[in-house]
Amino acid sequence: MPGLVPGLNRMGPAVRIEAMALPIRQAIDRAGALGARAVQFEARGDLTPGNLSGTGRRELASLARSRQLEIAAVACGLRRGLAHPEDLEKRMEHVRQVIGLAADLGTNRVVLEAGPVGDPKSEDCSRLSGLLVDLAQVAVKRGVMLALPSGLESGADLTALLGRIDSEGAGAAFDPAAQVTGGFAPMGDLADLADRLALVVAADARRARAGRSAERLSVGAGEINWLTLLENLRDAGYTGWLVVDGEADNPETARQGLAALVRLMGIAGV
Hints:
Blueprint: E1 12-16, H1 24-33, E2 38-42, H2 54-66, E3 70-76, H3 88-105, E4 109-112, H4 123-141, E5 145-149, H5 155-165, E6 170-174, H6 176-181, H7 186-193, E7 197-202, E8 204-206, E9 215-217, H8 226-235, E10 241-244, H9 252-268
Parallel strand pairs: 1-2, 1-10, 2-3, 3-4, 4-5, 5-6, 6-7, 7-10
Antiparallel strand pairs: 8-9
Helix pairs in contact: 3-4, 4-5, 5-7, 8-9
Protein backbone atom coordinates (compact mmCIF):
# COMPACT_ATOMS: atom_id res chain seq x y z
CA MET A 1 0.00 0.00 0.00
CA PRO A 2 1.50 3.39 -0.97
CA GLY A 3 0.69 5.00 2.38
CA LEU A 4 3.13 2.83 4.27
CA VAL A 5 6.18 4.58 5.68
CA PRO A 6 9.34 2.51 6.21
CA GLY A 7 9.97 1.94 9.91
CA LEU A 8 6.37 2.58 10.95
CA ASN A 9 4.00 -0.26 11.80
CA ARG A 10 1.34 2.13 13.07
CA MET A 11 0.38 5.75 12.61
CA GLY A 12 2.80 8.34 13.94
CA PRO A 13 2.10 11.89 15.23
CA ALA A 14 3.99 14.70 13.51
CA VAL A 15 3.71 18.49 13.40
CA ARG A 16 4.18 21.19 10.77
CA ILE A 17 7.10 23.27 11.99
CA GLU A 18 5.76 26.57 10.60
CA ALA A 19 2.55 26.22 12.65
CA MET A 20 4.57 26.45 15.86
CA ALA A 21 5.95 29.91 15.00
CA LEU A 22 9.33 29.25 16.63
CA PRO A 23 12.90 29.21 15.30
CA ILE A 24 13.52 25.79 13.80
CA ARG A 25 15.77 24.48 16.59
CA GLN A 26 13.28 25.55 19.29
CA ALA A 27 10.37 24.18 17.24
CA ILE A 28 12.05 20.79 16.92
CA ASP A 29 12.77 20.71 20.67
CA ARG A 30 9.17 21.65 21.44
CA ALA A 31 7.72 19.12 19.00
CA GLY A 32 9.56 16.27 20.67
CA ALA A 33 8.53 17.42 24.15
CA LEU A 34 4.86 17.45 23.08
CA GLY A 35 4.96 13.86 21.83
CA ALA A 36 5.62 14.24 18.11
CA ARG A 37 7.66 11.56 16.39
CA ALA A 38 8.33 13.61 13.27
CA VAL A 39 8.24 17.12 11.82
CA GLN A 40 7.28 18.57 8.46
CA PHE A 41 8.65 21.83 7.10
CA GLU A 42 8.16 23.89 3.97
CA ALA A 43 10.96 24.42 1.48
CA ARG A 44 11.06 28.20 1.66
CA GLY A 45 13.35 30.92 2.99
CA ASP A 46 16.53 29.48 4.47
CA LEU A 47 15.18 25.98 3.84
CA THR A 48 14.81 26.23 0.06
CA PRO A 49 17.00 23.80 -1.92
CA GLY A 50 19.16 26.66 -3.20
CA ASN A 51 19.83 28.01 0.29
CA LEU A 52 20.38 24.72 2.09
CA SER A 53 23.83 23.38 1.24
CA GLY A 54 24.88 19.75 1.54
CA THR A 55 26.33 20.53 4.96
CA GLY A 56 23.15 22.34 5.98
CA ARG A 57 21.03 19.38 4.91
CA ARG A 58 23.12 16.97 6.95
CA GLU A 59 22.97 19.28 9.98
CA LEU A 60 19.18 19.61 9.74
CA ALA A 61 18.66 15.85 9.47
CA SER A 62 21.10 15.30 12.35
CA LEU A 63 19.30 17.88 14.51
CA ALA A 64 15.99 16.06 14.08
CA ARG A 65 17.55 12.65 14.75
CA SER A 66 19.25 13.96 17.88
CA ARG A 67 15.77 14.69 19.26
CA GLN A 68 14.53 11.22 18.20
CA LEU A 69 12.44 12.81 15.44
CA GLU A 70 12.02 11.85 11.80
CA ILE A 71 11.34 14.29 9.00
CA ALA A 72 7.83 13.34 7.93
CA ALA A 73 7.74 15.39 4.73
CA VAL A 74 8.95 18.49 2.95
CA ALA A 75 6.18 20.78 1.68
CA CYS A 76 6.53 22.38 -1.72
CA GLY A 77 4.25 25.38 -2.11
CA LEU A 78 3.82 27.06 -5.48
CA ARG A 79 2.56 30.59 -6.05
CA ARG A 80 0.77 29.30 -9.12
CA GLY A 81 -0.47 25.80 -9.81
CA LEU A 82 1.16 23.67 -12.47
CA ALA A 83 -1.77 24.30 -14.84
CA HIS A 84 -0.58 27.91 -15.33
CA PRO A 85 1.78 28.00 -18.34
CA GLU A 86 3.70 31.14 -17.32
CA ASP A 87 7.17 30.29 -15.93
CA LEU A 88 6.10 26.64 -15.82
CA GLU A 89 9.57 25.18 -16.31
CA LYS A 90 10.89 27.27 -13.42
CA ARG A 91 8.22 25.79 -11.15
CA MET A 92 8.85 22.27 -12.44
CA GLU A 93 12.57 22.66 -11.73
CA HIS A 94 11.80 23.94 -8.24
CA VAL A 95 9.70 20.82 -7.56
CA ARG A 96 12.52 18.60 -8.84
CA GLN A 97 14.95 20.33 -6.49
CA VAL A 98 12.58 19.90 -3.53
CA ILE A 99 12.34 16.19 -4.34
CA GLY A 100 16.12 16.04 -4.17
CA LEU A 101 16.12 17.96 -0.89
CA ALA A 102 13.63 15.55 0.64
CA ALA A 103 15.70 12.56 -0.42
CA ASP A 104 18.86 14.13 1.02
CA LEU A 105 17.05 14.71 4.34
CA GLY A 106 15.96 11.09 4.51
CA THR A 107 12.22 11.59 4.03
CA ASN A 108 10.16 9.94 1.31
CA ARG A 109 7.30 12.45 1.14
CA VAL A 110 6.95 15.80 -0.67
CA VAL A 111 3.63 17.58 -0.12
CA LEU A 112 3.11 19.27 -3.49
CA GLU A 113 0.52 22.02 -3.87
CA ALA A 114 0.06 21.45 -7.60
CA GLY A 115 -3.20 23.41 -7.91
CA PRO A 116 -6.85 22.43 -8.35
CA VAL A 117 -7.76 19.34 -10.33
CA GLY A 118 -10.87 20.85 -11.91
CA ASP A 119 -13.02 18.65 -14.11
CA PRO A 120 -11.20 15.27 -14.35
CA LYS A 121 -12.26 15.07 -18.03
CA SER A 122 -11.00 18.55 -18.93
CA GLU A 123 -7.98 19.50 -20.99
CA ASP A 124 -6.50 21.33 -17.98
CA CYS A 125 -6.69 18.18 -15.90
CA SER A 126 -5.08 16.20 -18.72
CA ARG A 127 -2.24 18.74 -18.88
CA LEU A 128 -1.82 18.68 -15.10
CA SER A 129 -1.72 14.89 -14.96
CA GLY A 130 0.93 14.82 -17.70
CA LEU A 131 3.17 17.19 -15.74
CA LEU A 132 2.65 15.18 -12.58
CA VAL A 133 3.57 11.97 -14.42
CA ASP A 134 6.93 13.56 -15.25
CA LEU A 135 7.47 14.69 -11.65
CA ALA A 136 6.37 11.35 -10.23
CA GLN A 137 9.01 9.64 -12.37
CA VAL A 138 11.65 11.93 -10.85
CA ALA A 139 10.28 11.19 -7.38
CA VAL A 140 10.38 7.41 -7.87
CA LYS A 141 14.02 7.57 -8.91
CA ARG A 142 14.82 9.32 -5.61
CA GLY A 143 12.65 7.03 -3.47
CA VAL A 144 10.09 9.79 -2.85
CA MET A 145 6.31 10.05 -3.21
CA LEU A 146 4.49 13.27 -4.11
CA ALA A 147 1.56 13.84 -1.73
CA LEU A 148 -1.14 15.97 -3.40
CA PRO A 149 -3.28 17.85 -0.85
CA SER A 150 -7.00 17.24 -0.78
CA GLY A 151 -9.65 19.88 -0.18
CA LEU A 152 -9.89 21.71 -3.49
CA GLU A 153 -11.97 18.89 -4.95
CA SER A 154 -13.80 15.78 -3.82
CA GLY A 155 -11.95 12.63 -2.90
CA ALA A 156 -13.38 11.00 -6.02
CA ASP A 157 -11.93 13.69 -8.31
CA LEU A 158 -8.50 13.54 -6.65
CA THR A 159 -8.60 9.74 -6.93
CA ALA A 160 -9.39 10.12 -10.64
CA LEU A 161 -6.35 12.37 -11.12
CA LEU A 162 -4.12 9.90 -9.28
CA GLY A 163 -5.50 7.15 -11.49
CA ARG A 164 -4.43 9.10 -14.57
CA ILE A 165 -0.95 9.60 -13.12
CA ASP A 166 -0.83 5.87 -12.29
CA SER A 167 2.50 5.96 -10.46
CA GLU A 168 3.82 4.82 -7.11
CA GLY A 169 5.43 8.25 -7.03
CA ALA A 170 2.13 10.07 -6.39
CA GLY A 171 -0.52 9.78 -3.68
CA ALA A 172 -2.86 11.93 -1.60
CA ALA A 173 -2.17 14.17 1.38
CA PHE A 174 -5.61 13.74 2.94
CA ASP A 175 -6.69 16.87 4.82
CA PRO A 176 -10.08 16.29 6.47
CA ALA A 177 -10.30 19.91 7.65
CA ALA A 178 -9.86 21.15 4.08
CA GLN A 179 -12.57 18.73 2.96
CA VAL A 180 -14.94 20.28 5.50
CA THR A 181 -14.16 23.91 4.63
CA GLY A 182 -14.36 23.00 0.94
CA GLY A 183 -17.89 21.68 1.42
CA PHE A 184 -17.02 18.01 1.04
CA ALA A 185 -17.60 14.97 3.27
CA PRO A 186 -14.31 13.88 4.87
CA MET A 187 -15.38 10.36 5.84
CA GLY A 188 -16.67 9.61 2.35
CA ASP A 189 -13.63 11.19 0.75
CA LEU A 190 -11.36 9.09 2.95
CA ALA A 191 -13.09 5.97 1.65
CA ASP A 192 -12.40 7.13 -1.93
CA LEU A 193 -8.74 7.89 -1.19
CA ALA A 194 -7.99 4.99 1.17
CA ASP A 195 -5.77 3.15 -1.31
CA ARG A 196 -3.95 6.34 -2.33
CA LEU A 197 -2.93 7.81 1.04
CA ALA A 198 0.60 9.17 1.23
CA LEU A 199 0.12 11.40 4.28
CA VAL A 200 -2.69 12.68 6.53
CA VAL A 201 -3.03 16.24 7.83
CA ALA A 202 -4.33 16.43 11.40
CA ALA A 203 -6.58 19.47 11.69
CA ASP A 204 -10.22 20.19 12.42
CA ALA A 205 -12.82 22.57 10.98
CA ARG A 206 -16.35 23.92 11.08
CA ARG A 207 -18.50 24.39 7.99
CA ALA A 208 -19.75 27.77 6.89
CA ARG A 209 -23.09 28.74 8.41
CA ALA A 210 -25.43 31.67 8.05
CA GLY A 211 -23.48 34.75 9.04
CA ARG A 212 -20.26 32.83 9.69
CA SER A 213 -17.56 31.63 7.31
CA ALA A 214 -15.92 28.22 7.45
CA GLU A 215 -13.16 27.89 10.06
CA ARG A 216 -10.00 25.80 10.13
CA LEU A 217 -9.24 24.73 13.70
CA SER A 218 -6.93 22.49 15.69
CA VAL A 219 -7.70 18.81 16.31
CA GLY A 220 -10.68 18.39 18.64
CA ALA A 221 -11.94 21.97 18.27
CA GLY A 222 -14.24 21.45 15.28
CA GLU A 223 -16.91 19.15 13.94
CA ILE A 224 -14.74 16.26 12.75
CA ASN A 225 -15.01 13.11 14.85
CA TRP A 226 -11.30 12.43 15.03
CA LEU A 227 -11.73 9.25 17.05
CA THR A 228 -13.84 7.73 14.28
CA LEU A 229 -11.46 9.08 11.65
CA LEU A 230 -8.49 7.43 13.35
CA GLU A 231 -10.38 4.14 13.50
CA ASN A 232 -11.24 4.44 9.80
CA LEU A 233 -7.60 5.12 8.95
CA ARG A 234 -6.58 2.08 10.96
CA ASP A 235 -9.17 -0.08 9.19
CA ALA A 236 -7.87 1.20 5.84
CA GLY A 237 -4.41 -0.05 6.78
CA TYR A 238 -2.81 3.39 6.95
CA THR A 239 0.45 3.46 8.91
CA GLY A 240 1.91 6.81 7.91
CA TRP A 241 2.31 10.20 9.52
CA LEU A 242 -0.49 12.36 10.94
CA VAL A 243 0.86 15.90 10.52
CA VAL A 244 -0.69 18.41 12.93
CA ASP A 245 -1.55 21.85 11.64
CA GLY A 246 -2.84 24.79 13.69
CA GLU A 247 -4.94 27.87 13.16
CA ALA A 248 -3.38 30.74 11.23
CA ASP A 249 -1.59 33.27 13.45
CA ASN A 250 -2.23 31.23 16.59
CA PRO A 251 0.72 28.89 17.23
CA GLU A 252 -0.69 27.68 20.52
CA THR A 253 -3.37 25.80 18.59
CA ALA A 254 -0.72 23.63 16.91
CA ARG A 255 0.61 22.63 20.32
CA GLN A 256 -2.92 22.01 21.58
CA GLY A 257 -3.74 20.02 18.45
CA LEU A 258 -0.68 17.83 18.84
CA ALA A 259 -1.52 17.09 22.48
CA ALA A 260 -5.13 16.30 21.50
CA LEU A 261 -4.02 14.03 18.65
CA VAL A 262 -1.62 12.05 20.86
CA ARG A 263 -4.41 11.61 23.44
CA LEU A 264 -6.94 10.46 20.82
CA MET A 265 -4.45 8.07 19.27
CA GLY A 266 -4.03 6.49 22.68
CA ILE A 267 -7.80 6.10 23.09
CA ALA A 268 -8.17 4.63 19.59
CA GLY A 269 -5.20 2.33 20.11
CA VAL A 270 -3.50 3.35 16.88
